[in-house]
Amino acid sequence: MKRTNxxxxxxxxxxxxxxxxxxxxxxxxxDRGGAKDPAKDWTLQEALGDPEGxxxxxxxxxxxxxxxxxxxxxxxxxxxxxxxxxxxxxxxDSGPVRLAAExxxxxxxxxxxxxxxxxxxxxxxxxxxxxxxxxxxDGLGAGSTTSLEAGRFTMDLGSRRLSxxxxxxxxxxxxxGFRAEYGGKDGTEVTAFYTLPTVRLPDxxxxxxxxxxxxxxxxxxxxxxxVFASHPLGGGTxxxxxxxxxxxxxRPDTATRNRHLRTPGARVVRKPRxxxxxxxxxxxxxxxxxxxxxxxxxxxxxxxxxxxxxxVGYTFALPVKPRLSFEYSVASGDRKGGAYNRFDxxxxxxxxxxxxxxxxxxxxxxxxxxxxxxxxxxPGPRWDVMxxxxxxxxxxxxxxxxxxxVRDASGAAGSFAGQQVEARARYWLVPKRxxxxxxxxxxxxxxxxxxxxNANGRGDPVYGxxxxxxxx
Length: 472
Description:
The two termini are about 40 Å apart. The chain has an 18-stranded antiparallel beta barrel. About 10% of the residues lie in helices and about 45% in strands. It has one domain (about 1-470): Beta Barrel (Porin). By secondary structure, it is mostly beta strands.
């Protein structure tokens, strides 16, 4: 397996370097005081003549990734894929009115019908944003700001654990509806929204493998709404509180579990600073109802689920800015009888906490107890490195473990899932224009992943990736 992965990396590296067009030499020339290279600083905005009121940006990311000893039941033991993500965004600001749009093209090459990819990786030629915004000024108080947006948009809320504009994943969560935002003179911020989440299409394997272009959809059969508020406490600390709602019912072409979820939560966080401690505590409770399956006669269950996240870190006052942090993550899993207990992370992201997703991604915010330690350093202005170790247990022995799909309904396989080690390095080949990133993870299987009823017994999953991102 190691020989296969090395061969894959060897094949990918020349292509990535060609895509970079040898920028390190150009960057070194400018650092030595050489002439400015017009090609290196070319942007869409400049190409259009930098029109007043109009902002246009673009980005291209090329990522090669490979996994060996696949942990998911029912998929091939190893696979690799080339993932491309291209986006063009434009905003016209005429004062109190803003018009914005973003077109994204997310494709995968090299995947077969037995691949683990889904519409989380493929969404060809999709408008992920298209909205009109209204800036209402200080109508709600001196020094305040208020804005309204209507249309399709992406949405980060707080820690991004329950609603996020995805960064590592090849596609984005998008929502169609309205959003109102308020900013007070004292730093208080409030967001209220009511949306129809976008259903990415195609969602069939043949269409996904072929990168089929198909318009995404939304309907009142799936709604996502809520209120989110934050307030500064001083000293780099702020408190957040929120209530999020998700309502789902069967669509004409899709049977669902008819989720009706309410998720209240709160978070207190202090930002990292050199020579000081930082911390974060977040918790959310989830209640409502869900069907036990997708059939029309499936029993309806009450929901009672939760997640907790705690982090404490220290940033040393040294040139390389080392930050050492300890984390503990808990998310409930379903138990036999009674209410449904598995936490639903809604539209949240997990790469920043649980490691790479995409072809990998065994860990997530469901049925898990996981302590970990993380080290981050920035040896220079152009590059940074991160490494993390975490151990993982099932919160419920009888539910499937986190995002693996591995389950032992009897509970006889125990609760220890394993240990994960991950690392990532990023380097700006051209500052703020071209970045190279490489990383990987290994999941050392515990007794559960080796002996559960549907465990594939292939050994410890190994994953690696390399990507190049350019903005223009």
